[in-house]
DNA sequence: CTCGCTTGTCTAGCGGTGCTAGGATCGACT
DNA sequence: AGTCGATCCTAGCACCGCTAGACAAGCGAG
């Protein structure tokens, strides 16, 4: 059995390598530059090897998205648990979210802009995505205000953050006033 | 000179045909299906003709986006001018915006998701885009509240709408509660 | 009315994409 | 040590955006 286990390990390692390389390449040169040929060359295997791990490019994007979701959830929890009081927590959450989107644009795209073939807001939604949403809920749920469903509030607040993140990065909003927009959002939306 | 004028008219007409066909095809089958070959076939010309009107595919997307911006600005103004009082105006604005995004997903993508080679939030931003933003400002500026710059408020509110529009359409948010999210957003963000 | 020329259009092709069939090779078990 | 199965690569498909160069149509001049 040891042989099979070793092969299993090698296979898993190579899968991680593919995902990590795809992410790296996407962050460096954008998702357009992530072609199956370039990716194969970087991992020093031929193209068909990619297809023995993933159904296609979209599944690779999906895998990057899942990793990003796990990472984002951790970052959000770290930021909010270090803050005192609801207001500080919500502000920290918002800042961390936007910061993550800005620092990892390719990963953020994989999660929310590109088609990674992932299910959302459904039963079969992968755990990392549910957990990232849960991380938002944990902090936002306590400032939803009376009579407002915390889930609905979380969705709405999240959508606002997502809008800020994407429009800012796409050059649709002037980048300078980002912080003031965050303060406005937190001050108005959250019931403190 | 009449000959030249006629050619000019024909040329302009064909350009409109290209843009309209691209939009139609994108709405029917998604932007992925809008290839230069298919587009050329639909307008009953060969591919190179497209390139005598536009630098490339991205410019065609940009042209669709500009048309969409004009249309959206008109829709927003029509909706807000028919409403009485700030609250009704803001609600009508939000609903109309989201409705436009939902009914014209391909055009909305051309405007805000895809790269149409357009400048935003800059001096050389095309007039239709500036005007669409102005349409938002006209209604949102009056509910920014004291001490908040109306432009900043408009940007923030717009970002929230954009987030709702994109996340809903991408299946990231459950579609049923759209109306309640709008009410929450309007009730909290706008100072009435 | 005919001729030369400009203007416009098409055919054909380049380098690239995601993806796959089928053959070669390598390594594990008997 | 030899067989046989898993694993990987070469080669190729159909399609993409885009363009060079051949070709024809329609104009103005004589």
TrEMBL record, chains A, B:
Residues 35-54 bind DNA. It comes from the Bacteria. Residues 12-72 form the HTH tetR-type domain. GO terms for molecular function: DNA-binding transcription factor activity; transcription cis-regulatory region binding. It holds the Pfam family TetR_N. Keywords: DNA-binding, Transcription, Transcription regulation. This is TetR/AcrR family transcriptional regulator. The keyword Transcription applies. PANTHER family: HTH-TYPE TRANSCRIPTIONAL REGULATOR BETI (PTHR30055:SF234), HTH-TYPE TRANSCRIPTIONAL REGULATOR RUTR (PTHR30055).
